[in-house]
Amino acid sequence: MATLNAKQVLSNLYGLMMEINYHRLDEEVLEELQQKSNRQVDKHLIKVKQLSAKLSSGKQRPLSKSTRPDSKT
Questions:
Q1: Rounded to whole angstroms, how far apart are CA atoms 61 and 57?
Q2: How confident is the model at residue 59 (pLDDT cuts 50, 70, 90)?
Q3: 3 state SS for 13-32
Q4: Is the overall model pTM greater than 0.70, yes or no?
Q5: Percent of the chain with pLDDT over 70
Q6: In this model, does residue 28 exceed pLDDT 60?
Q7: How crowded is the C-beta side of 42, counted as CA atoms within 13 Å?
Q8: For residue 72, what is the DSSP state?
Q9: Which helix or strand (DSSP H or E) is residue 43 part of?
Q10: Please, which contacts does 10-14 make with residues 24 or more away whose CB atoms are closer than 8 Å?
Q11: What is the maximum alpha-carbon separation in the chain?
């Protein structure tokens, strides 16, 4: 059996979920999934948001004169 990449696996899973719920609109199913809380996913999203905020704040903050590597103090 050929090894599938992660995108293909997720695509196959999404397709299967839509087939299982074939009698419902895609929008209905997606809305229901978004309303349900998943602790593991929520925890991961919080970590991603925290890391993103940390990285963006580090990029936006200019180096002060005393913290520049070439400054002579």
A1: 6
A2: low
A3: HHHHHHHHCCCCCHHHHHHH
A4: no
A5: 74
A6: yes
A7: 7
A8: -
A9: helix 39-60
A10: none
A11: 71
